[in-house]
Design brief:
Blueprint lengths: L1 E8 L3 H9 L1 H11 L3 E8 L5 E10 L8 H4 L2 E10 L8 E9 L4 E13 L2 E12 L5 H30 L2
Antiparallel strand pairs: 1-7, 2-3, 3-4, 4-5, 5-6, 6-7
Helix pairs in contact: 2-4
Length: 168
Amino acid sequence: MKLRETLNLPLSARAAAEMYADPEYTEIRRRTLGAAQAKSTLEGDPAGSFTVRTELSMPTDRVPDMVRPFVGSSVTIREEQSWSAPEQDGSRRGTMHLDVVGTPAGLTATLRLTPTGESTSTVEIDGDLVAKVPLLGPRLEKAAIPYVSTVLRAEERSASTYLESTTR
């Protein structure tokens, strides 16, 4: 099922790339999402192309009832974001792969980080949410879209918290 989101970040495109690569941002995301655990690894450098792999242990108390039998009381989400080197204007292209460990569900998306001002940027997410469950897959996808969107949009709050923590 198609998923499109636009995130508005209170950071320049350059600062947003640095944020994604910063382990402190992983901890901020953990707190924002209410995850029990979070860890990330960085490959490359945010001055050029880089990849961030994040693993979050999330409670499932907010997932739709229809989805809960497939995930239990918590899930581990593995996310990989790969970003290109910046273009002349600071924008970047990327990909995101998100897997819900132990389930047949995942998200594959293209990303576009674009400067919108001196100290603001947007991230456009254009992806496909897939639940590979015979007969129920499309219904599960439809039920999960609002939850996944909420998780993705939490990045706006996390970015604001990150900005506050780095300007103190």
